[in-house]
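Title: Comparing notes on inverse folding

I've been comparing how different people in this forum approach sequence design from structure. To keep things fair, I'm posting one structure and asking everyone to reply with a full sequence. Here's the target:
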C-alpha cells in the first residue's frame, strides 16, 4: 500500500511517497528560502502563490523518483492544520482533489503530528509510551505519546517558540533568514559567559523574555559603541535556549517515569541540542530518539507517515 504525502504549511513545497512499512520511496522538497530571504522572513501571500506554482512539478518528481504512476497511489495525506492559512490551503485542496479524482481516501494530517512521525520514519524501533519534545519555528511543546500514538500535551510555550527566538536573535545580529542554523554555526560554546537569562515560568516554556534580554544586551552594547562578540552572544543565547528545554523535559521525564524521549521539529537538527540531550538522557537512563537531520525540517514524508500512523 502506497501513501502520498503533501506538505505546504509554510515555505516548503513537498510531496513524498512511502510504503506501508514506512520506507520512503521519494521525498521531494522545494524550499522557498531564497525567495523569502529578501524580506527577512516568510511572506504568507508569496508562500501560497509559490506553492501553487510548485505543487504539480513536485508531484511529478516525487512519482518519478518513487518509480510509480499516480494510479498506484492508495491514499493521500496532506497537512490541513496548523500553518499559514493560504499556504496550507494549497496542499489541502490539491490533496483532496487528487484523492477525489483517483477515488481513494484522503487523510487530513496535523502538521505537528507530522513532525512526531518523523521519529517513526528514522527509528522503526521506537515504542510507546514516550515523551515527545517538538521544537520548531512555530511550536515548543512537550507531549506524552501513549499507545496507538494517542497524544496528550503536557506543556507548551507561554509566548514565542524556540525556533522563532533563534530566528529573531539572528535577525538582530544581521544573520540571514532562517537564522536558527546560522546562530548555531556562529556560536562558540567553548567561550566563557554568564547566562544572559536563565529563568523561565514554572509551568511552561517561554522564549520572549530570553529574546528581549538578548536584544536589549545588543542595543546597549551598540549604544556604548562596543562591538558585538558574535560567537559569544550566540553561544550564550543557545545555551539559555537549550538549557530551558533540558530542564523542563527532565522535570517531566522524572514526573512521568517514562524512559523514552523523542525530539522532533526543525530545531532538533541543532547539534548542541543533540549533544546536551544525549548526555542528559544517558545520565537518566532514558532512550533518546531523533529524526535523521534530513527529516527535522518540514517535509512530506513525515506527513505521509502521520497519515499511516493515524495519530489522534
Ligand atoms: O519544523 P520547521 O522546519 O518549521 C516549522 O514547522 O516551524 O522549523 C523551522 C525552525 C526555524 O525557526 C529554524 O530557524 C529552526 O527550525 N532551525 C534551527 C536549526 N535548524 C533549523 N534552530 C536552531 N539550530 C538549528 N540547527
Ligand atoms: Zn514544521
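Reply #1:
Here's my take.
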Amino acid at each position: 500500500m502506497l501513501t502520498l504525502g503533501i506538505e505546504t504549511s509554510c515555505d516548503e513545497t513537498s510531496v513524498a511517497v512511502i510504503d506501508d512499512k514506512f520506507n520512503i520511496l521519494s521525498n521531494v522538497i522545494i524550499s522557498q528560502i531564497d525567495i523569502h530571504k529578501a524580506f527577512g522572513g516568510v511572506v504568507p501571500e508569496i508562500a501560497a502563490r509559490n506553492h501553487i506554482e510548485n505543487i504539480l512539478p513536485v508531484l511529478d518528481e516525487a512519482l518519478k523518483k518513487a518509480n510509480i504512476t499516480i494510479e498506484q497511489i492508495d491514499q493521500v495525506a496532506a497537512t490541513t492544520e496548523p500553518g499559514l492559512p493560504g499556504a496550507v490551503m494549497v496542499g489541502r485542496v490539491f490533496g483532496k482533489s487528487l484523492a477525489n479524482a483517483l477515488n481513494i481516501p484522503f487523510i487530513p494530517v496535523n502538521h505537528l503530528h507530522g513532525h512526531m512521525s518523523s521519529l517513526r520514519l528514522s527509528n522503526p524501533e521506537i515504542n510507546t509510551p514516550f515523551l515527545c519534545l517538538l521544537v520548531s519555528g512555530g511550536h515548543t511543546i512537550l507531549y506524552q505519546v501513549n499507545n496507538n500514538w494517542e497524544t496528550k500535551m503536557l506543556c507548551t510555550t507561554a509566548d514565542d517558540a524556540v525556533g522563532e527566538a533563534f530566528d529573531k536573535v539572528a535577525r538582530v545580529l544581521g544573520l540571514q533568514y532562517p537564522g536558527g542554523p546560522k546562530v548555531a554555526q556562529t556560536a562558540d560554546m567553548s567561550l566563557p559567559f554568564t547566562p544572559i537569562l536563565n529563568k523561565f515560568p514554572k509551568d511552561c516554556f517561554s522564549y520572549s523574555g530570553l529574546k528581549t534580554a538578548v536584544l536589549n544586551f545588543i542595543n546597549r552594547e551598540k549604544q556604548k559603541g562596543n562591538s558585538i562578540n558574535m560567537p559569544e552572544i550566540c553561544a550564550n543565547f543557545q545555551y539559555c535556549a537549550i538549557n530551558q528545554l533540558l530542564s523542563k523535559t527532565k522535570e517531566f521525564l522524572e514526573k512521568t517515569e517514562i524512559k523514552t524521549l523523542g525530539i522532533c521539529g526543525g530545531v532538533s537538527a541543532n547539534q548542541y541540542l543533540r549533544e546536551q540531550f544525549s548526555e542528559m538522557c544517558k545520565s537518566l537512563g532514558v532512550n533518546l530518539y531523533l529524526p535523521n537531520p534530513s527529516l527535522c525540517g518540514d517535509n512530506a514524508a513525515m506527513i505521509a507517515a502521520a497519515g499511516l500512523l493515524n495519530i489522534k
